[in-house]
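User: Earlier you gave me the apo prediction for this protein. Now I'd like the version with fe (ii) ion bound, so I can compare the two side by side. Same sequence as before, with the ligand SMILES added.
Assistant: Got it. Here's the input I'm using:
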Amino acid sequence: MEDFFAMAATQTTVREIALQQPTSIRVFERFGIDYCCGGRKPLEQACEERAIDPQTLLDALAEAVVAGGEDGRDWAKAPLGEICNHIVDTHHAYIRAELPRLRFLAQKVVARHGETHPELKEIQQHVEAVGEELLQHMQKEEVMLFPYITSLERSQENGARPVGCFGSIHNPIRVMMAEHDSAGSAVAQMRVLSGDFNPPEGACPTYRGFYQALLEFEMDLHQHVHLENNILFPNAIQMEDGEAATL
Ligand SMILES: [Fe+2]
Ligand SMILES: [Fe+2]
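And here is the structure of the complex with fe (ii) ion:
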């Protein structure tokens, strides 16, 4: 394990570390490092961009390994149908439940503090836009893409050809990943506008609650997109390509 982290300091991308070592995810969250959409960069570069000492991060990564994972599940080895169900039950359900609360908090803080803190209005606009985008995005995954992936996996056992209305699975996945980039960039902009979700000195409880809610929303989105971009989608593509090769 020591070798792994020594190598990680120089060459390994954040995304690869997140895949090989699931306990690293909460460490990346703690340090504000994006391991999903923005994860295709070496660890050193990610540290540089966030002004973090690489050794501090490496120590935290090594400590997390000793402490163990949160749900104990290594999704990289799970059946794809189970990953789809987990995403819908956990992350899609969270977004649907959390969005109305985020909107309410945004309205409240803008009404009370928008004049002295104009960035709040901009953050509110991002909340509205990303919320709308994500609701439509999740619908597409649940109605079209995830059922197709589940039937693709089942076809490995029963030989029945899965039916998709989009040609190759590469097509919807390309669209989903572009939408992930858009949501990821909206959340990254909210992080910048809010000074890493740090409320100003003396901020009221609603203000603090709003920034805390945004921080948790970002964390959930990163975990969600990591599961799709880095595990579910590449495995589904591999499965479809393997199936095509046997025809
Ligand atoms: Fe999703
Ligand atoms: Fe998605």
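For your comparison, keep in mind: Residues 75-246 form one domain.
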